[in-house]
């Protein structure tokens, strides 16, 4: 495509620089030359990439407005320029790689200016009747353009690759089952009972014992790998559990030592409290004893106060009062200890 474009480019350039004062014959000659080059480019584009629907496939009249300005086939995935010329998507993209104008009227054009086709034109395009592309293989289907892709995906005459691996054949969809029945690449289970699936092409080289031995070796290798993986996983888990247990043991030992220290302090405090309680009990007993003595002393003073209205009795009361005062002095002189808790 690039080679063809380079070969016709010298003929396209003079047209772009055509002056308004050129003669009518020169302009006519330039247009004819440009049209020839455009047809050549369209033919090369059609051969390089099949874009656009071949107009020969359509039933009935096709309006020229529904033809691509580049490939001259019926529009496929159409886009429209501001000048209202329409093109196939791949055709105009390929054109704008080397040009920056409309291929029809030479007006400035780039990809950002392209827009979808007008709705009424899309409706006219979708209503066109087209033959299936598998017509040469026997399909006589004629349908609207908007539904032809769906039909061709399911057409019984379309050629599809064989579903067997390594088979290079392409057969019609309707003949696929018949081909699979005789395909040399079809797979089947070994008739000798080994259960191995073989291809017809490998039938003469199949050895049940060798295949089973190979499969056994593969299973053994897989089992060894799985055992190693499980072993490594279990060792990793055990190491993790061991580290966790060591950390837990260290924490528990520290907590036990802390509890022992707290218990020792509590026992010391308890002993101190017990000693203080004994001293306090002794003080209470001593105070109770002094209380009884004071009560007895008060009673004796009351008895002495009621005695004696006469002088003789006054002599006796003086003697008793003297004894009571002596007892009070002895109580005051007793040492007393106060324990504060």
Describe it for me?
58% of the residues lie in helices and 8% in strands. The two termini are 114 Å apart. It is mainly α and 341 residues long. It folds into 3 domains: 130 residues, 2-Layer Sandwich (Herpes Virus-1); 47 residues, Herpes Virus-1 (2-Layer Sandwich), CATH 3.30.40; 99 residues. It has a 3-stranded antiparallel beta sheet with strand order 1-5-6, with helices on one face. Strands 3-2-4 form a 3-stranded antiparallel beta sheet. The N terminus and C terminus are likely disordered.
Structure in a nutshell:
This protein is mainly α and 341 residues long.
* Total domain count: 3
Strand content: 5-15%
What is the top-level CATH class of the largest domain? Alpha Beta
According to DSSP, the number of beta strands is: 10
Q: What integer value in Å does the Rg equal? A: 60 Å
Helix-strand sequence:
HHEEEHEHEEHEEHEEHH
Largest sheet: 3 strands, antiparallel
> What do the pLDDT scores average to?
79
Look up the CATH topology of the largest domain.
Herpes Virus-1
GO molecular function, one term: zinc ion binding
Domain TRAF-type: 151-194
Coiled coil: 209-304
InterPro entries: Znf_RING, Znf_RING/FYVE/PHD, Znf_RING_CS, Znf_TRAF
């Amino acid at each position: 495509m690039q080679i063809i474009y380079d070969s016709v480019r010298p003929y396209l350039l003079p047209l772009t620089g055509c002056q308004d004062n050129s003669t009518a014959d020169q302009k006519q000659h330039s247009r004819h030359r440009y049209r020839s080059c455009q047809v050549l480019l369209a033919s090369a584009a059609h051969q390089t990439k099949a874009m656009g629907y071949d107009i020969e496939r359509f039933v009935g009249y096709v309006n020229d407005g529904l033809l691509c300005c580049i490939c001259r086939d019926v529009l496929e995935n159409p886009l429209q320029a501001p000048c209202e010329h329409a093109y196939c998507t791949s055709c105009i993209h390929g054109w704008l790689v080397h040009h920056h104008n409309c291929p029809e009227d030479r007006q400035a054009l780039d990809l950002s200016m392209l827009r979808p086709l007008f709705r009424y034109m899309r409706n006219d395009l979708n209503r066109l009747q087209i033959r299936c592309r598998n017509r040469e293989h026997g399909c006589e289907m004629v349908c609207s353009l908007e539904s032809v892709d769906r039909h061709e995906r399911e057409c019984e005459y379309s050629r599809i690759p064989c579903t067997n691996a390594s088979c290079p054949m392409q057969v019609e969809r309707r003949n696929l089952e018949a081909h699979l029945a005789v395909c040399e690449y079809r797979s089947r289970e070994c008739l000798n009972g080994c259960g191995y699936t073989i291809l017809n092409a490998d039938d003469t080289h199949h050895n049940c014992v060798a295949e089973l031995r190979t499969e056994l070796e593969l299973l053994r290798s897989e089992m060894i790998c799985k055992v190693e993986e499980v072993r490594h996983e279990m060792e990793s888990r055990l190491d993790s559990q061991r580290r966790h247990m060591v950390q837990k043991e260290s924490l528990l030992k520290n907590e036990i030592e802390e509890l022992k220290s707290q218990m020792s302090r509590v026992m010391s405090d308890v002993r101190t409290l017990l000693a203080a309680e004994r001293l306090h009990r002794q003080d209470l007993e001593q105070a109770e004893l002094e209380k009884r003595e004071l009560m007895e002393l008060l009673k004796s003073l009351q008895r002495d106060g009621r005695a004696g209205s006469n002088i003789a009795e006054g002599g006796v009361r003086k003697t008793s009062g003297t004894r009571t005062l002596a007892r009070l002095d002895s109580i005051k002189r007793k040492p007393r200890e106060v324990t504060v808790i």
